[in-house]
Amino acid sequence: MRTSNHLIGLLNFLTFLLSIPILAGGIWLSSRANSTDCMKFLQWPVIVIGASIMVISLAGFAGACYRNTFLMYLYLWVMFFVIATLIGFIIFAYAVTDKGDGRPVANRAYLEYHLQDYSGWLEERVASESYWSKISSCIRDSHVCAKMGQMVGGAPETADNFYLRKLNPIESGCCKPPTDCGYVYVNETVWNPGGGLVGSDMDCSRWSNDQTQLCYQCDSCKAGVLASLKKSWRKVSVINIIILIIMVILYVIAVAAFRHNRRIDNDEPAGETRMEKAQPSRIQF
Asked: Which of 78, 133, 141, 191 has the largest count of CB atoms under 10 Å?
């Protein structure tokens, strides 16, 4: 039916348009990798999948519109592998980010993050000494902590104002000491020990008012990076799931269009089955 070809062409055009958000998601992850999350390998699977969908959408569009059987055959195979890859990536993204979340703190609007709440492949990679040195250096160079300073009424914000702020995971984990340490607020990135005592958390001794050190070596900073990655990946995964559903529907219709094209190539009438063609009626006129 010609309708199936028109429909597959239309859906491929829509998929081409929908591949743009996937590429945009990969570019967004890339920008965060260079400024916030500092995980510079995670964006490439998204970019590759988005580019692949864009290319095969064009191939499917051409195959459907021009009834090119070879293009449709190639399109179906590539489409199958892209769908399988996308399913695998979505499962992987949720599997490595299924654990860990921020903990509420009394009298604070922000959450705090603890490395022991996370586990698995991503946690091991982030926490490894060789990889963390690169991540912490990236966070330091991004000046995310230096950008936390705010003025309230023409004056630096007070502790009460700071406690009401909703900090992102990296600001909470890397730019200030854990609340349990008992440090006293001076400004956003300067905290003094309260009464000379600090908590038993190892991060309490890792905190430094040196603006090049702060809590970049703290477990809370590593947990903050993991929490930030979790949020980023989950946002991109929502887009990927929507695209996946559309691609599966598209694949089913593409199979129908491919069979239709082969039937035309074989000069087989749409209403005639292969059995009828192989065993014609004996009655001849």
From this structure: 191
